[in-house]
Amino acid sequence: MYRLLPARLWIFLIWGGLIAVSLSTRPLFPIDETRYAAVAWEMWVREDFLVPYLNGEPYSHKPPLLFWLMQAGWRLFGVNDWSLRLIAPLFSLATLFLSSAVARALWPERKRVEELTPLILLGVFIWIVYSTLTMFDMMLAFFVLLGIYSLVKLASSGVAFRHWALLGVAIGGGVLSKGPVILLHLLPVALLAPWWRGRQAANFRWRQWYAGLVSAVLIGSVIALSWAIPAGMAGGEVYRQAIFLGQTSGRLVKSFAHQLPWWWYLEILPLLLLPWLLFKPIWSGLVKLNVQEPGIRFCLAWLLPVFIAFSLVSGKRIHYLLPLMPALALLLARSVDEASAPDGWKRAHIIGVLVFSLLGIVLALLPGLNNYYHWRTELSVLSPVWGSVLLVVSLAFAAIRANTAQDSVLAVCLTSVTAFIVLSCGFFEIEAERYDTKNPGRKIAALMNKNRDISYYGNKYYGQYHFMGRLGRPIAVLSNFDELYNWAGHHKTGYIIVTYKDAQPLPASVISYHYPYKSQNIALLPSRILLENPALRSVISSQN
């Protein structure tokens, strides 16, 4: 089956199907995707491409590369939401192809590793998920792998300046994508070069190696500072402190949020390996690997120090490990290449594929079971077609007899992507409206166009309505009810965005417009209604 099409075409077709379904079935996710789109939109409206803004305030949490690329898409195609949603997927595709190049550079004599690596990476469930999300981590993953590629080429073909320059570009691109964290991904493996080069290290020019590494860091710094210095001057003292000191020190010493114990990444490691955890040849090949092999050592020097460092940092999110997934894919591909199947590869993929078929059965039966057990009302709306599709696809691949390792890995990869597509379609069939902020955003924009002032009652506003409504001015954010009441008194024709769970205390006679939002609801409450009904204080405060 694998030989029916060129290897690169398989990758492109699987990736293309995944992204096409994502673009057609789901909206921009609040709060992350809508927030980043809002920042790009506000920069676009302001025509300020140095300092990112969110709701009228400088946004120092992330560097500007993603926002620049969003605006570049708007320059080419007009303002839309589909071009910005293609940025992360395109970086994912580039990383898949680049992973083949890294595998070829590490193991030039093992063609199968080069072919297996992108298929394994594309089949990893976490990689599939984040390939469809407009976030910074896929961009960072690409620049990390670009830096890794330059290091491999430097070690194998000599310390040519063009490769150091490429490493510098990777560092600069990574800093502009997600900050100095790229140095944590690249410096340990570069500094450990004497260990992973093994016997080849004896006559290597190490002074040139470390001097070149310093020059690459300087090149990356120049690229990053060419934005950071003028942006810091334009954004003011607070913004300047935030982009130069606040983010890096805050995340390394004590994370702003997401604080979890040091062993949390170890707990979720099986999740990172799905579905390849169920692929037997990986385990049979893994025990045969020789740690003395330079390619294996290189992947370990890349993977382990970063994994340990992230485990020790207080703030943890699963997508922080996304740039490490190519390293895992390389090791898994090398393990499969080392494996030997007694009866060939005919049934090597069957366990993983059959697990997906069981998932398909559960999804197909779920609506009927929910009607009987009454777990959640919305599950009854789920069409059994989605589970049936996954079941049919899984059984079809289970029936296929693989002739090669590539056939077997391709079957698991295709089934894994199909499973994600089915789960995504099923979820958004019943929940899409709750995650789409377009309608409330447009209503807010319509009110602003009528010179109605808008405020948001809550601890923090994440910009979820700004891009979707193409808002032209900020929303006042008020976390204290007394401030809210005073604001209503000064803006009697204004509206207040309130979030609530229970509709009973806020009947339709009180609110003007209401929309479902995630597990809650949002409403637009006229200022005059709040002023005329002081009793709403207890209602709004309890719902917020």
Automatic annotation (TrEMBL):
Record-annotated membrane-spanning stretches: 7-25, 86-107, 119-152, 164-197, 209-229, 262-283, 295-312, 348-369, 381-402, 409-430
Entry annotated with the keyword Transferase: yes
Gene Ontology CC annotation, any one: plasma membrane
Record-annotated Glycosyltransferase RgtA/B/C/D-like domain positions: 61-202
GO biological process assignments: lipopolysaccharide biosynthetic process; response to iron(III) ion
InterPro entries: LipidA_mod_glycosyltrf_83, RgtA/B/C-like
Keywords tagged on the record: Cell membrane, Glycosyltransferase, Membrane, Transferase, Transmembrane, Transmembrane helix
Pfam families named in the record: PMT_2
Membrane listed as a keyword: yes
Chief localization: membrane
GO molecular function: pentosyltransferase activity
Membrane topology classification: Multi-pass membrane protein
Location in the cell: Cell membrane
PANTHER family: MANNOSYLTRANSFERASE YKCB-RELATED, UNDECAPRENYL PHOSPHATE-ALPHA-4-AMINO-4-DEOXY-L-ARABINOSE ARABINOSYL TRANSFERASE
Identification of the protein by name: Dolichyl-phosphate-mannose-protein mannosyltransferase
